[in-house]
Amino acid sequence: MLVQTDRTPPPSPSPSPVIALSQDFQVSSVKMSGNALQKAIDLVTKATEEDKLKNYGEALKLYEHAVEYFLHAIKYETNSEKAKTSIRAKCVQYLERAEKLKAHLNKAQKKPVKEAGGSSGGRSSSSNKDKKEGSSSDDEEDPEKKKMMSKLDGAIVMEKPNVQWSDVAGLDLAKEALKEAVILPIKFPHLFQGKRTPWKGILLYGPPGTGKSYLAKAVATEANNSTFFSISSSDLISKWQGESEKMVRNLFEKAYESRPSIIFIDEVDSLVSSRSDGENDATKRVKTEFLVRMQGVGNNTDGVLVLGATNIPWALDSAIRRRFEKRIYIGLPDAMARATMFKIHLGDTKTDLTEADFRQLGHQSERYSGADIQIVVRDALMQPVRKVQQATHFKKVKAPDRDNPHIMRDDYLIPCSPGSPGAMELTWMEIDGDKLLDPPVSMKDMLRSLQSSKPSVNDDDIEKMTKFTSDFGQEG
């Protein structure tokens, strides 16, 4: 693409590179199978068509919208590093094209109109010069802000994570507070008038793996009409001086423009830890900007909720801690919640576990977090696979066809002991893949995996969390 040096319309991209780019993305979309990526490809195709037809305003909007979806695909889709690198490179090309179209459109809008007669030529020349200098300054600042805003667009969760409140076991107080802050003000705005205002800052803290981020996913799913920003320190921290605090400012401005909105900051302690004399000025400025934007004089944050999550709440700056009006302890689940978690993580996997078995697992998994239970279940799901790998004998059984449950088949094979009636000496490599019947997960499998796994939270962690809760928080 050529840099424009005059006021003639920028040349449209040639057809062959556009086709090649679309083909590259179609290959990536097969690997990633993401709706966001396919949407981006469709928008790029439309953008290049409008670009060729010299509809530059429409093309600019489509390019920028497409880049948002590409950034979303990179952040939230599962894909290979090669595909990510390819998409990033294409995003740069489309952003460059968008910047050139924007510069051309700005020139067309700000083209000076000559006055008739020319009697006040000197004054007009001076006025035009001032306007030109002012517009030049605007052009320098505006693209910089737009670039930051487009970077923040990648933090917007466009596709809901599909986690319902019912998928979160326990944590009733935390769910109630989040509903008060997010769901109820949107559905019943007349309830929140005068002195009754929704929460503007909620901090979720607790040991690792207790469901803080999972709760945030539920909020993103349930808050249908809200814009959800998922932010990490890498989204805001920059090596360039002054850019990090600008990103913080732009984040809150964008959230305010997109109201109602939720800013979720995972591992918030990495951004706003306690201030000290030894830290550098850039870090101090970022923390100061956060303080001002969350609850500063002259800043209107109505309709914006800041939702933070951390494993080390005592490391937060005291001023930031105060701005999180609700500080909710997301502790280790109780026996009933643990039993529900075992059931949720097993999902629709074939199993012969009963309700009594799930209750027993809940009681035997004391001190396990939700993440620990997920690991136990994942290991138990592999137990039937290990049985198949280690088996030296198989036997035929009768079972419904896996594709059509109304048809019974009698040629399925399952692993068995050498002395079992009908046992045949076989290995899994000698069996036709269609004839292997996957064994159900048993209680024995679950107990074996539970015994081989250990809780990830120690007594010191619990003691620190308990002290912080008694000083500043509340139980979730």
How does the SSE layout of this entry go?
Layout lengths: L14 H18 L2 H18 L3 H21 L4 H29 L11 H33 L18 H16 L13 E5 L6 H11 L4 E5 L1 H4 L6 H15 L3 E6 L14 H15 L8 E7 L7 H6 L2 E4 L5 H12 L8 H10 L5 H21 L2 E8 L7 E9 L7 E2 L17 H10 L6 H13 L2 E2 L1
Parallel strand pairs: 1-4, 1-5, 2-3, 3-4, 5-9
Antiparallel strand pairs: 6-7, 6-8
Helix pairs in contact: 1-2, 1-4, 2-3, 3-4, 5-9, 9-10, 12-13, 12-14, 14-15
What is the gyration radius calculated from CA atoms?
29 Å
Q: In whole angstroms, how far apart are the ends?
A: 56 Å
Average pLDDT reading: 77
CATH A-level architecture of the largest domain? 3-Layer(aba) Sandwich
Domain module tally? 3
Strand order of the largest sheet: 2-3-4-1-5-9
Top-tier CATH class of the largest domain: Alpha Beta
Structural class: alpha/beta
Helical proportion, percent range: 40-55%
- For this structure, what is the CATH homologous superfamily of the largest domain? P-loop containing nucleotide triphosphate hydrolases
Which shape, going by the Cα principal axes?
Answer: globular
Query: Total helix count?
Result: 16
Low-confidence region ranges? 1-7, 14-33, 111-140
Strand content: 5-15%
Largest sheet data: 6 strands, parallel
Q: Would you tell me which CATH topology of the largest domain applies?
A: Rossmann fold
Task: Give the topology string: H per helix, E per strand.
Answer: HHHHHHEHEHHEHEHEHHHEEEHHE
DSSP strand tally: 9
Enzyme class: hydrolase
EC number: 3.6.4.6
Keywords: ATP-binding, Cell cycle, Cell division, Endosome, Hydrolase, Membrane, Nucleotide-binding, Protein transport, Transport
Subcellular location: Late endosome membrane
